[in-house]
Amino acid sequence: IEKTEAVVAQLKKRLSDGISPTNLSVYVRCPLQFYLQYVLKIEEPQLKETGIGLNQMGSVLHQTLELLYQDKIGLRLTPEHLKTMRQKAETILLQCFREAFPDVMLEQGRNKITFTVSLQFIHNFLDKELLGLKDNSLIIISLEEKLTALINTPEGEVLLKGTADRIDEWNQHQRIIDYKTGKVDIADIKIDDFNDFLHPKKAKGLQLILYNLMFLLQNPNVYLIPVS
What is the reported pTM? Predict the structure, then answer.
């Protein structure tokens, strides 16, 4: 894309209006997609689907986890908390699917598979959390936390903004957690030098470090453990 004055003006406006870790991870993976989607604001055509898409499933899983944990904010989680949450998981997941897709049949076909897989994701997450409590302390600090940071650059001010899925305290160290429904390897979030931030395979690591940056600028005395 030729960087005409008009294009540069659009880019600067986007940066000053606010840009999220997700937006920047799209840029790292595909600059053209970033330009079309976030600068020109061209929307992808809405294809009529007979089932629930993977991105839609991810949104429902996020909402389900938020509802499961929302009354645990400020509490030190116990095994009993996690066991109760596991018992409620199917009901809450079904509620979230019904709200998101009121006209979709979940009792048959591909949608039933999607629901079953989603429930397994939730159960696996809670089981891993329960296992971790054996020798550790966990306190939920906040969910869906809005974060912002104003960064001065030679090209002007850039407003970073985003929503951290969860912030908690793990053995007296705070963590920022970014939920992912797809596979994430440690190599995807391990950053060895600055150039790694521009590598498409490190986009998830870039997202995490930007959430860390925003949080630490707002809370400079906190030690963080980034988690994806």
Answer: 0.84
Summarize the chain as % helix, strand, coil (round to 5).
Answer: 55, 20, 25
Q: How many residues does the chain have?
A: 228
Cβ-contact 112, 175 below 8 angstroms: no
Q: pLDDT tens digits for 145-196?
A: 999 999 998 878 899 999 999 999 999 888 999 998 878 888 888 888 888 8
Residues 6+ away with beta carbon under 8 Å from 136 = 170, 171
3-class DSSP assignment, residue 25: helix
Q: Please, are residues 162 and 178 in contact by the beta-carbon 8 Å criterion? A: no
Partners of 139 in beta bridges: 76, 169
Q: Which residues contact 8 (CB under 8 A, 6 or more apart)?
A: none
Is 126 within 8 Å of 85 (Cβ atoms)?
A: yes
- What is the C-alpha separation between 38 and 88, in angstroms, rounded? 38
d(CA 31, CA 198): 11
Q: Count CB-CB contacts under 10 A for residue 86.
A: 17
Coil vs helix vs strand at 53: coil
Which DSSP symbol is given to 102?
T
Distance (Å, rounded) from C-alpha 228 to C-alpha 226?
A: 7
First to last CA, the chain: 33
Cα gap 202→48, rounded to integer Å: 32
